[in-house]
Design brief:
With about 230 residues, this protein is an alpha+beta fold. The chain has three domains: about 5-55, Structural Genomics Hypothetical 15.5 Kd Protein In mrcA-pckA Intergenic Region, Chain A (Roll), CATH 3.10.290; about 60-125 and about 215-230, Alpha-Beta Plaits (2-Layer Sandwich), CATH 3.30.70; about 130-205, Pseudouridine synthase, CATH 3.30.2350. Helix content is about 25%, strand content about 25%. The protein has helices at about 5-10, 15-25, 90, 115-120, 140-150, 185-190, 225-230; strands at about 25-30, 30-35, 45-50, 50-55, 60-65, 95, 105-110, 130-135, 150-155, 155-160, 165, 175-180, 195-205, 210, 220. Strands 5, 6, 7, 8, 11, 12, 13, 14 and 15 form a nine-stranded mixed β-sheet that branches. A four-stranded antiparallel β-sheet has the order 2-1-3-4. Helix 1 crosses helix 2 (about 15-25). The longest helix has 9 residues, at about 15-25. The two termini are about 20 Å apart. The relative contact order is 0.15.
Length: about 230
């Protein structure tokens, strides 16, 4: 790994500021000042930044099956319950949720302290897919489903599902796959047709599902799952 990337990954500096610190002689490796950002860091290198030893940050990745009735946040001014309360103390201060699920929604939510991955999974340009199971306030029909498939105009822009699955033998239920990160996008898309969401559950996020987790339970991601997330759209 290049020195500049190592500094940015294991300190509070951005990549740009990491490069400046290196070029200004603020970084030493094994007791010597290194001013080359492209220096290749080895496993045994002892690295100091501004005379303080850099301790490698362990990257943590977890999957939560968010229950209804909790805020996707670390704290809430109204003192409502937050998802972070579901984790042990040693994780509460370091985990950040990727994206959000609103108070009345449940399902797959990934949390991590890996800022690069969080950015990648949150930014619309990476087209990260989410799949939702939805129950609405009244029966749907083929005409309305076709209209929904065409997409709708919301106050913050056009929104369209990537895929919609609906069967007339369960007319008030549907499954929607999409990559949009707009706030409450599914609820707002359906409300365009004067229909309201009674239940919204995110089945999977970026291909990782919560089928073996009860509501409120969480687990660490496997190495295979972490690799799959990091390879998305590479």
């Amino acid at each position: 790994m290049y020195l500049v990337k190592f500094i940015a990954k294991h300190s509070d500096l951005s990549r740009r500021n990491s490069e400046k610190a290196i070029k200004y002689g603020k970084v030493t490796i094994n007791g010597k000042i290194i001013e080359d950002p492209s220096y290749i860091v080895s496993e045994n290198d002892i690295i100091f930044l501004n005379k303080k030893k850099i301790i490698k940050k362990e990257k943590i990745y977890v999957l939560l099956n968010k229950p209804i009735g909790m805020i996707t946040s670390k704290s809430d001014p109204s003192e409502r319950d937050t998802i972070i309360q579901l984790f042990p103390k040693h994780l509460q201060g370091i985990l950040d949720p990727i994206g959000r699920l609103d108070y009345n929604s449940s399902g797959a939510l990934i949390l991590t302290n890996d800022g690069d991955l969080a950015y990648k999974l949150s930014h619309p340009k990476f087209l990260v897919k989410k799949i939702y199971s939805i129950i609405v306030s009244r029966s749907l029909d083929e005409e309305l489903i076709e209209s929904l498939k065409k997409g709708v105009r919301l106050e913050d822009g056009f929104a369209k599902a990537d895929k919609i699955i609906w069967k007339n033998n369960s007319p008030d239920s549907l499954t929607i796959e999409l990559h949009s990160g707009k706030y409450r996008v599914i609820r707002r898309m359906i409300e365009v047709f004067k229909i309201f969401v009674k239940k919204l559950h995110r089945i999977s996020f970026a291909g990782i599902n919560v089928k073996n987790l009860k509501k409120g339970e969480w687990r660490y991601l496997t190495e295979k799952e972490i690799d799959s997330l990091k390879k998305l759209n590479n």
